[in-house]
Amino acid sequence: MTDRLDIGESDKEENHVLPEFGHFLLILAAVIAFVFPWTILYGVLRKPPAFTGLWRPAVLTVFSGLTLSLFSLAYAFLTNDFSVTYVSENSNSYLETFYKIAAVWSSHEGSMLLWIWLISCWTTLFALLTNESEEVKAPAVASALLIIGLLSLFLVFTSNPFARQLPMVPAEGKDLNPILQDIGMIFHPPLLFLGYAGISLSFAFSIGCLLRRQLTPTSLNSLTKISSIAWGFLTAGNVLGSWWAYNELGWGGWWFWDPVENSSFIPWLLASAQLHALLLARKRHKLCKSVLFIPIAAFTVSLIGTFIVRSGVIQSVHAFASDPNKGLFLIAITVLMALPALILFARNAVFFKGDTSEINAYDAAVSVAVMILSAAAAVVLFGTVFPLIYQGFGLGSLSVGAPYFNSIFAPLTIAAALLISGFTLFRQRAASAAAVIAVSAASSVAIAFFLHPKDPIMTAFAVFSCAMLFLSLITEALTKRAGQNWFAFLAHLGIAVSMVGVIGDTQFQQEALVRMGPGCGRPLGDVIFVYDRTDKVDSKSFYADEGRIIVLDKNEKEITELRPQRQTFKSNGMQMTHAGISHGLFRDLYVSMGNQLSAEEYLMRLNIKPMMIWLWLGGLLMIFGLFFARTFRREKDLS
Predict the structure, then answer these.
(1) Spatial strand order in the sheet of 510-516
(2) Which residues are in the Cytochrome c-type biogenesis protein CcmF C-terminal domain (predicted)?
(3) Fewer beta carbons within 10 Å, N or C terminal of the chain?
């Protein structure tokens, strides 16, 4: 078999026109989404109903075109159409069907198309299913269409996912990146893009309110629904990405403060700030300007994150390998969207005067929460983009790593936990509050000074704030019979639970890097890791050396068995480490298999990671809190 197949000479290959059809629909959607908003906005400002009403056919046409375009690309993957460059670069005929579907968004071009399509989904659902008046929908839909138009034009001019390599077609594709051949990476990107799409619609809705110079209670309800669902998807995406990194990358960590990781974390922090600001805007008619400004900031940060991920300015396991020249186009889109939005806000914010009545304890607590979350987002943003700016001005290379982020973010997290618990205790009886404080203080002293953490002082503060948050929420739930905000309760409880996991991993984990082969044993903590043997594994996608690691207690009784692998993928020879993990409620036993050092020996990373599972249990609690609120509670419970 030859490496490439000339479809002009072969009767076995048919030159399908479906990719051209998908490309045409993408261009059509881009043109409509870019042109129609101007006429719709003209109708909004000048009141000709014929122009204003164009938002209906425009949004439906754009959604239909992008849907068929995305399906065309997916069909090319499912049918192994390697004449499409994007397909041949990210798939092959041996790939499992569900991985072929995931390969659609596995790289730059397809993931951009997915994001644009999801924005159109959000916009169409908002246009068809909400009870907002036409004067509210028209400017919001027009603004969302403009976002779709600019991003689609970027795709058409710089990153065509339907580009062909004709007449010479590869006989086989290169395969999906082995890092992405995992269930976590099938769902992680779509969840994040669903969150980004929700932020895009929040931005568009904010622009619509600023253009109309009006923010009604109905509009606040709609903005709350959009913001809370977007927050839920961002939460799920970040939690799943953290789980994937911990289980698949083999380094034993769950967050690296990587610029690409930060690009999804900053919008989540701002979305969290938005939910708190909406509480006051809906209940007390305060922070009305904030609920219009935060979506602008969050969307701008999302575009900056898109630039970081897709411009080639950083090297990351998460980043797309892309032409740096595309970054200029992305910077232009960011400026074209963010600058007019900021100018509009500066001009029209004066029309959104909130309630000027006296600030009570609830107002103060929520306002401080908004400030803490916004400050945390600013801290992470600064640490992420400053090295890029520093390098961009030709000042050399600068690295901002985990010590910077941890030194600032950890105190902000402790402050936030103390704020929530303090306000919660403020509403309880003095005896309950005193008991919570006493138990929290005793717990912090006992854990920090008797269990030998790496940093006793920081551990003491962290445990105290975590215990305060957990106990204050539980006591309030036990004593409060009616009117409980279950979304807030479960979300805040999730933070406390996740803090347990963070404290356990950062302060109490035990680690050893050792040379091991069959017959070798290594004590660590209260267990013994014994390398029993090496097995050979041959799967459809890779072959691997698999170590059988037996974990014994001090009495040499077997606790569990771990199976780390050193994988070599057949398609490209790429090597991957697949960790062997025993998950437990109170600790994880973690072994990863590094480079082969001799005929039978490997570099092994051994870890005991206390309370690790609590990190993701907390994330699940947050997501469940949103589901619970949206499904079972009355609308007023979010206020």
Answers:
(1) 510-516, 602-610, 587-596, 580-582
(2) 335-629
(3) N
